[in-house]
Amino acid sequence: MRKKVLSAGLCSVLSLSLLASANPWTVNAEGKQSQAVQSYVTGKGTEWKGIPLNGLIPETASDATKIELENGMTKPIYSTDDAIVENLFVETEIDSDRDGKRDRVSIKVYRPKTDQGVKVPVIYEMSPYRSGILNVPVFNVDVDLNPVSHPGNGFGRGGKPYALAEGQAANLGSLGNYYVPRGYGVILAESIGTGKSDGCPTTGDEREILGTKAVIDWLNGRAKAFTGDGKEVAADWSTGNVGMTGTSYNGTLPNAVAATGVDGLKTIIPVAAISSWYDYYRANGAVIAPGGYQGEDTDNMAEAVLTRINPQVCKDVIAELKRDQDRETGDYSEFWAHRDYVKDADKIKASVLVVHGLNDWNVKTKQFAQWWEALGENNVPRRLWLHQGGHSGPSGNNWPQLQNKWFDYYLYGIENGVMTEPAVDIQREDRSWTKEASWPAPGTVSTKLHLTGTGNDLGAMVLNPVPNQPHNNQTIIDAPKTKANTLIANPDSNSPNRLAYLTQELTGDVRISGTPKVSIRASIDRPVANLTALLVDYSSGNPVIVSRGWVDPQNLHSADRSESLVPGRDYTFEWAMEPKDYIFKAGHRIGVVLISSDFDYTIRPEAGTKITVIPTRSEITLPIVGGKNAFNQ
Fold this sequence. Notes:
Elements: E1 46-48, E2 51-53, E3 69-70, E4 73-74, E5 84-91, E6 104-111, E7 120-127, H1 173-179, E8 185-190, H2 206-219, E9 225-226, E10 232-233, E11 238-247, H3 249-258, E12 265-271, H4 278-281, E13 282-283, E14 286-287, H5 298-304, H6 315-324, H7 334-337, E15 351-357, H8 366-377, E16 382-387, H9 399-412, E17 424-427, E18 433-436, E19 444-452, E20 459-462, E21 474-477, H10 484-487, E22 499-502, E23 510-514, E24 517-524, E25 531-538, E26 544-551, E27 571-576, E28 580-584, E29 589-595, E30 610-613, E31 619-625
Helix pairs in contact: 5-6
């Protein structure tokens, strides 16, 4: 888990025109934050009216609760036709558009029509996308890279409404249609700077986090909400117990809010979610695109969701994002620390059901892996659901039932066994599902594979150490306009633009589970370059890129510090690839292909950079279930 020591003062470029406040990101708010810490230790368990309880939500055992169970889950007992629908504006602590007033976020509340005195928990989704995504220009990536002239100093350089017409309560959307009949309230909200909400989008920092958190505060009596004509409305129908969920950006905000430790947020289900925005737009000091969105960065992401009325008021905020994201060095900085939820995992009180696609190249797999690890380090109740899809939500394997049981367990305190099952569900390549106790898989061993090769012919990857031959080197000539799928083809053929190293044909299946790592001894003929490693499954069919990883060689020792390189001098470059859980089948070969620029992800400078690699002083470390023994089946 990344830990950074930040300066006590707020980065000056992110200063806001706020009203007086002890918190530099907030406007003075009435009331005090609860300091209660939620315990998730289940007691002996009880029953109430035949409903088994786990002890997490004591108030369920009262006349304020009206639910019924079927197959261990809440079942539909309320009608969507009778549902109560409210369009409200929640007052936040922040003034992100700097107009001297607290931002208000637009929310739509769907809740069941209950008997008097009955209260319900809430499933909440905040989104910047409800009013659409604008087509905005992105950065040109066909530009030269930026060499630093000296060691870096660390931390780099410093709409339309979504509201539906009244009278349409019978269609409450996917969350509302499912959960309102089962005794839940559902809130769909618009993030700051989008749709009917005030403020400006800030791509994941404290301003967006506090704008999202305000809804939970309102449900717990710590914030105010108003109708469109200014009438204050209390959430007296709610228990104050909240679960958040969503996919992509909508799933990222639950991670962010959970990392504040806000009281009342009992659980989150983040799907294909970001845990650190640095790792969405950068990798080991390199400027990297999210898959499918080459040239995107925090500023044009914010512009794309800026759908509020009078968007011009956010001009300065967008300009600050552009300035401080630092595409010149790519270093981890205080700007990125404000968007890094992993470092604050020790504050989390909510349970977490992490859901991610093993083939997601938009929100890459490092996002779930580092979050999962941080949750474990901080004893956060957690489960993991890994599927074979890309940037999407899960399906199959009784997913709706698991989600239902998860919310029942943590929001109603129903004992249904959801936390006595194995912690990890993994969908395999043949679309079958398996359950495991942990991830990476039990029995995973970091296993070194050593490289050998001559000229630009096909090299080998072997288990046993190889003799050091420092004068036996190989070269890569950067071809930025050639795609990786082309460069990995025909590994037996000599190519000036890549180096390929393959194992022998596998005698049995070999599974990796975790993060592959690369260590390359090499020199570069200029002060700056891209370095890319591709983990490839070679068989009689088309090769498959299993993982990839990138580094700016100038970030020789850490992601937060660039330092100048001497052209022609040998250095050891080490970096991690994207975490994976993958089975290489018997008869296939495991390959690592080294290239310079990666067309779909990196900056694409002028072609011709020469990288000279010493293979016998280089190695690949793979997280192999069973370690070396996996090769001796």
